[in-house]
């Protein structure tokens, strides 16, 4: 017998409806415009760690609404937000579903700190967590592991990471990812909003970068964690067309090196940047995980009406 | 044999790891922010029964293991091998001591067992959940005792020892749950 029943109970359905209402009220009160962008589009992302789902004849299901929202911003939309579905191939587990729900918003004229404050105001309301603690990625990582993620010897990172499990072949960034996802995240106090910023330069993605006093490149990027989960990821957005094109090219080279399918850079995004993206900061929040936090539910599949195994 | 990518991993899947057949017990997908995705996997080595923990990069794959469970009848042992027969094909297969180690004290001739075959050869033998065996030695018990109070050790025909109620006597046939090694009941007409 096929299991036709939804993964959710009545409590989860109501909590989701309430969550969407709260979010809408939050942005209405702040005069941020709700928008709607395509989920199916000609191009996907080049990011080596995000695999888009191809739709033959059409392009790709979007892994985030970021490119289209930036095109709206470049066209003069002003501050915008939306709740939408996003899709990532191969991401399935207790905290991942290949189709999931994102809240994403952009603030023109905001600094990264302004956006961090707004993001924490919203999450504090949604999760009833009042304490906010900020950490710089390097300091936090060093405090927990004893190793500097940017300057530590790769072999020292590997030896530290391999204490508890046999690891696959990983490069320096892969080892930092592993330790961040296991040891460091687990060390964050659960009952607070933990804001981690100044990520390593190699993890800038679409964020601007700057330099620490010792010359190491760090990204103007932050993440918010609560109750053991990563909830939000934000950037002070890159607006430089040449730098964006260079990052696309670097991603393509890495994709080729790792025998991943090639992804053409999105020419529309590059053209919009060339036209001019206003200075802005943007953030995405995983709403399914916010629900997990609200309800104390450990499995995302019980908060999605029909998770992928019986969708 | 097929290969399985990490996104096909699920509990029960049989794969090869370091040359040994293993069954996946648990598979957890872990992915930090926009970084490398991992699968943290717990596997049971089907040869040794030991649990292994391994971390894979998502997208890596393992070769499937040619492992299947077959119901076979235990025939006899020649001291070196324990011989089993497929009752449908009448094919006979010898299992070595490593394969029967955990089952040996519950093996009775003509009983049906679950034999896990790896590349066609017996890897592990599991006895039936319940077996009936004769008591060859136990202290004489007190008359009038009922099941559930006290108890005494009884030695069975295979050499196994189980605790039985005091009223059960030498020569009687009893039923045992092999999963717990506990006495269940007397068997009438034994």
UniProtKB/TrEMBL annotation, chain A:
Transmembrane residue ranges: none
UniProt keyword terms in alphabetical order? ATP-binding, Ligase, Nucleotide-binding
Give yes or no: UniProt keyword ATP-binding. yes
> Where does the source fall among the domains of life?
Bacteria
Task: Give any Pfam family that matches.
Answer: tRNA-synt_2
Domain Aminoacyl-transfer RNA synthetases class-II family profile: where?
19-307
NCBIfam families noted in UniProt: genX, PRK09350.1
Protein name (record): EF-P lysine aminoacylase EpmA
Q: Which organism is it from?
A: Alcanivorax quisquiliarum
What would be the name of the gene that encodes this protein?
epmA
From TrEMBL, chain B:
InterPro entries according to UniProt: Elong-fact-P_C (IPR015365), NA-bd_OB-fold (IPR012340), Rib_uL2_dom2 (IPR014722), Transl_elong_fac_P/YeiP (IPR020599), Transl_elong_KOW-like (IPR013185), Transl_elong_P/YeiP_cen (IPR001059), Transl_elong_P/YeiP_CS (IPR013852), Transl_elongation_fac_P (IPR011768)
**Primary location class:** cytoplasm
- Give this protein's Gene Ontology molecular function annotations: translation elongation factor activity
Q: Which HAMAP family match?
A: EF_P (MF_00141)
Tell me the protein family, please: Belongs to the elongation factor P family.
**Residue numbers bearing the N6-(3,6-diaminohexanoyl)-5-hydroxylysine modification:** 34
> What's this protein's name?
Elongation factor P
Compartments (UniProt record): Cytoplasm
* Organism (species): Alcanivorax quisquiliarum
């Amino acid at each position: 017998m096929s299991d036709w029943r939804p993964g959710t109970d009545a409590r989860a359905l109501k909590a989701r409806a309430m969550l969407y209402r709260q979010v809408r009220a939050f942005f209405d009160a702040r005069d941020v415009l709700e928008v709607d962008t395509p989920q199916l589009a000609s191009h996907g992302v080049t990011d080596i760690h995000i695999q888009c789902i191809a739709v033959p004849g059409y392009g790709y299901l979007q892994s985030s609404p970021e490119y289209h929202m930036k095109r709206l911003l470049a066209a003069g939309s002003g501050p915008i937000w939306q709740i939408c579905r996003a899709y990532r191939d191969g991401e399935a587990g207790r905290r991942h579903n290949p189709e999931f729900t994102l809240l994403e918003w952009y603030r023109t004229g905001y600094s990264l700190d302004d956006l961090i404050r707004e993001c924490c105001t919203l999450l504090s309301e949604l999760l009833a967590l009042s304490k906010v603690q900020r950490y710089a990625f390097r300091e936090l990582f060093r405090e927990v592991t004893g190793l500097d993620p940017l300057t530590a010897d790769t072999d020292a990172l590997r030896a530290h990471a391999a204490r508890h499990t046999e690891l696959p072949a990983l490069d320096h960034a892969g080892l930092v990812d592993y330790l961040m996802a296991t040891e460091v995240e687990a060390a964050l106090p659960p009952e607070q909003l933990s804001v981690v910023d100044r990520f390593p330069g190699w993890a800038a993605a679409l964020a601007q970068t700057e330099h620490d006093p010792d010359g190491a490149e760090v990204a103007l990027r932050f993440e918010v964690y609560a109750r053991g989960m990563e909830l939000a990821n934000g950037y002070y957005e890159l607006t430089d067309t040449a730098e964006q094109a260079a990052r696309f090219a670097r991603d393509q080279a890495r994709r080729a090196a790792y025998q991943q399918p090639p992804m053409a850079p999105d020419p529309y995004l590059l053209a919009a940047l060339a036209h001019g993206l206003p200075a802005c900061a943007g953030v995405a929040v995983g709403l399914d995980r916010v629900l997990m936090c609200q309800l104390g539910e450990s499995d995302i599949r019980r908060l999605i009406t029909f998770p992928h195994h019986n969708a | 044999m097929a290969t399985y990518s990490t996104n096909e991993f699920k509990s029960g899947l049989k794969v090869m790891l370091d040359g040994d057949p293993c069954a996946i017990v648990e598979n957890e997908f872990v992915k930090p922010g926009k970084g490398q995705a991992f699968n943290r996997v717990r596997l049971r080595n089907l040869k040794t029964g030991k649990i292994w923990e391994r971390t894979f990069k998502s997208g890596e794959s393992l070769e499937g293991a040619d492992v299947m469970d077959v119901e076979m009848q235990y025939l006899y042992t020649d001291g070196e091998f324990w011989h089993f027969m497929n009752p449908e094909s009448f094919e006979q297969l010898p299992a070595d001591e490593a394969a029967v180690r955990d089952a040996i004290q519950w093996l009775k001739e003509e009983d049906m067992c679950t034999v896990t075959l790896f590349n066609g050869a017996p890897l592990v033998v599991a006895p039936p959940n319940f077996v009936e065996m004769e008591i060859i030695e136990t202290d004489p018990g007190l008359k009038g005792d009922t099941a559930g109070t006290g108890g005494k050790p009884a030695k069975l025909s295979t050499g196994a020892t189980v605790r039985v109620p005091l009223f059960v006597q030498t020569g009687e046939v009893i039923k045992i749950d092999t999963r717990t090694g506990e006495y269940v009941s007397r068997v009438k007409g034994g």
